């Protein structure tokens, strides 16, 4: 009987060690093994093609929307299909009420790459005006 208890205890201990070893964090190696001469980066495409500078692909588009205080005019900078910057050029919004939207909505649009973002509470008309102006600029 005494041997049976020790055997059960030893098996339980081995199971616990196996459990903790299986749950331990491991580092994942990048694809390919540098020691074997395999590349770990993706191919860049046709090596004969010339790459255009980013400035050549950059577009600056202007659009207009209607906020609470009147017209909101923006300049949207795009590289390809990506919105990279939004500058509010002109507005007649109250800084206390519309100011947070004028600051936050462009950041949200860039992050979402969409004009369909949440409005800033208390500045719904200003938020909608900025989204409308950006949509106008990019032709949505």
> Structural class per helix/strand content?
alpha+beta
CATH fold naming of the domain at 56-138: Sufe protein. Chain: A
Shape: elongated
Order of helix and strand elements from N to C terminus: HHEEEHH
Radius of gyration: 29 Å
- Kindly state the percentage of residues in helix: 40-55%
- In the sheet with the most strands, the strands line up as 1-2-3
> Which band does the percent of strand residues land in?
15-25%
Identify low-pLDDT runs.
Answer: 38-43
The N- to C-terminal Cα distance equals 80 Å
The CATH architecture of the domain at 56-138 is: Alpha-Beta Complex
The level-1 CATH class of the domain at 56-138? Alpha Beta
Topology, number of strands: 3
Mean pLDDT, all residues: 81
Q: Number of helical segments?
A: 4
Please outline the major beta sheet.
3 strands, antiparallel
Task: Summarize the entry for a quick read.
The protein is 42% helix and 19% strand. By secondary structure, the protein is an alpha+beta fold. It has a domain at 56-138: Sufe protein. Chain: A, CATH 3.90.1010.20.
């Amino acid at each position: 009987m005494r041997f049976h208890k020790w055997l059960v205890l030893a098996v339980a201990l081995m199971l616990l060690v196996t459990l903790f070893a299986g749950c331990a964090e491991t580092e994942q190696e990048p694809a390919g093994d540098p020691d074997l001469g395999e590349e770990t980066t993706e191919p860049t495409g046709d090596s004969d093609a010339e790459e255009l500078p980013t400035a050549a692909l950059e577009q600056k588009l202007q659009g207009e929307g209607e906020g609470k205080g009147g017209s909101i005019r923006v300049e949207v900078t795009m590289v390809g299909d990506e919105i990279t910057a939004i500058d509010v050029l002109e507005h007649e919004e109250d800084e206390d009420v519309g100011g947070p939207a004028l600051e936050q909505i462009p950041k949200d649009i860039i992050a979402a790459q969409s004009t369909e973002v949440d409005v800033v509470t208390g500045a719904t008309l200003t938020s909608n005006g900025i989204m409308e102006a950006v949509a106008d600029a990019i032709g949505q």
